[in-house]
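Retro notes, structure queue

What went well: the backlog is down to a handful. What didn't: a couple of records were mislabeled last round, so from now on we paste the full input next to the output in the thread. Example, using GGDEF domain-containing protein from Kurthia gibsonii:
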Amino acid sequence: MKKLFANLSHSPPASIYIQREFAKQNIKRLFLVSIFSLFMLSAIFFINLYAHTHTTYHFKDYKGYVICYILIIAINIFTLIYAFKHRRKQAISIEQTKNINAIIFLYVWITLLSSCYISNYDQQLHGQIVIYLVYAFLCSCVVIIPLRKTMIPILFCTILLSIAIIFNSNFITSGQFNLILLLLITVLTLSLNYLNYRIMKQHLEQNQRLVEEKQVSKMLTKELRAAAYTDELTNLSNRRGYLHHLDYLQTQLPCKMTVLMIDIDCFKKYNDYYGHAYGDIVLAKVASTLHDLCAGPNRFASRWGGEEFLVLLQNHTENEVYRFYKQFLNQINSYHIQHVASETADYLTFSIGGNSQTIIHVDDMNTCILHADEAQYTVKHSTKNDFVLMENGKIISMPDSIAQCQ
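Corresponding output:
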């Protein structure tokens, strides 16, 4: 359970998750907004350019009008290119999120100021402020931005345009209607901006909770599965864990397999003399040693039952098997575990039997284990504290002390 909460602590906080999701959404929306803007601005620009060159009506500062159009078209081309490069990214870093937010902030200010300037002249020429109203809507309702960030540029530009409309010469004819429309649209867009951001944020927060719940469920399932396959005392695989390992082993067949059956000598006497609490400590130390030795590839260890352990050594030579046996004994001896009640020695000893054979089908493991058990029985019912190794059920290595007892 501690591992579960440790993993959850590394998941991104809700605020960071929301910022990243907003950034991904805004990239996609900026891509669409830029395409729409370029079509709209290009059409209006060429219409106005035609009207300016083919009519007798001219107004001063037409160059500024053209420059604003070019500026707003340029910013849309830039955002289109940027959004096109990043719109398919699934993972966005915090640094990229900051860059996207900065671009959106720049986009909102430039487009609103430029459209405000353009609409001022559109009011004089055509009695309409469509460009500004369109961008007020796009920057507040299509792009997902908090109200506190959109309110300042929209109110600032709305006030500028309202003053310009009031002091225009055609205020009486069309300016009054445009002023009322401007104020109404401004209130409406800010309200929609607030609702849009709030709804999206609630949706993402709900998604974040669902993701966390799925992660908790996945981790709990993993923990429960691991608990089902693991012996509680030793943390080695139990019989069910061994059967689960056989599913993996099927993908490795055929292979040479060596099964070691390891039994603690006179363990009942150890429990009777020292107590079951100390007996459990001994089992845990033996299991820890096997866990360390079997941490590498092609090795598996499990608690077979009581004081008996099973080890699988896949594709090991005879020398490698003996090296494993020596390493195991050396590690156990380093603990200096006394066993004065033993009839074999004053320290903890083991009867170990092994069998090597080629496993073609997973059912062959049963035969291999039976032969390893026979080898262990030979040690256990003779001298104990030794090792007998078989190959295909035939003894290939037996100490002289055990051979004399046969």
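Agreed that this is the format going forward. Reviewer comment attached to the example: Confidence is low (pLDDT under 50) at residues 1-14.
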